[in-house]
Specification:
The protein is mainly α. The protein folds into two domains: 36-92, no CATH class; 103-196, no CATH class. Helices cover 31% and strands 5% of the residues. The chain is built from five helices and four strands, in the order ααααββββα. The protein has helices at residues 2-19, 31-35, 40-50, 63-79, 187-195; strands at residues 106-108, 111-113, 136-137, 159-160. The longest helix has 18 residues, at 2-19.
Length: 196
């Protein structure tokens, strides 16, 4: 009798272990295998649709961009690709701040200059029209411990600065003393300093 009970206990244990098995994870999908399913005609058609005027350029935050992401979502849904967020939500919210630069023009003694390539205006005048008798040359517009162009009061005045930063005769940068530029070569650093 003990042998029968012992055999039944072992059989029950084996059966319960068998029912607890977890399905093996699916084999990873090889992207190269999927790439062979895309035809040139299908890709061309989708690309022409996505680049069409229907999506109005797809600029970030624009109605055209919203149409474009809905187009992609529909394609995912049609292919049966589930949302990574669950449910019908395929989109992650990302805050966006967008600013547009005003149109600007500048001329000196009747000669027009091209914005961005010839000049960059950090702050424009309130009325959009400014006549200047004197422009102050501020060199590179740098104000650091090792080098400073700020030896004059520029508050409320128009200044001109060069891009980049000064170099020594041996080609090294004055501020770092090496071949590596400092943070001042980044125009954002220079603009930030000028706004103060």
């Amino acid at each position: 009798m003990k042998n029968i009970l012992y055999s039944l206990a072992i059989a029950a244990l084996v059966i319960s272990c068998k029912s607890q098995q977890v399905a093996a994870p699916a084999a990873p999908i090889n992207p190269e295998d999927l790439a062979t399913t895309i035809t040139q005609d299908e890709l061309r058609e989708m690309l022409y649709v996505y680049a069409s005027d229907e999506f109005e350029g797809r600029d970030t935050g624009s109605p055209g961009q919203k149409k474009a992401i809905e187009y992609l979502k529909k394609h995912y849904v049609d292919l049966g690709i589930p949302s990574p967020l669950g449910g019908d939500d395929y989109f992650q919210e990302v805050p966006l701040e967008k600013a547009n630069a005003p149109e600007m023009s500048m001329s000196i003694n009747g000669k027009s200059l091209e914005a961005v390539t010839s000049y960059v205006a950090v702050v424009s005048s309130a009325d959009g029209d400014l006549s200047i008798e004197e422009i102050i040359d501020m060199g590179y517009g740098i104000d650091s411990e090792k080098y400073s162009d700020y030896n004059t009061d520029v508050n409320g005045k128009v200044i001109v600065i060069r891009s980049g930063e000064p170099k020594n005769d041996d080609g090294t940068y004055v501020i770092t003393g090496s071949d590596a530029a400092s943070k001042w070569s980044n125009m954002r650093q220079q603009f930030a300093a000028k706004r103060d």
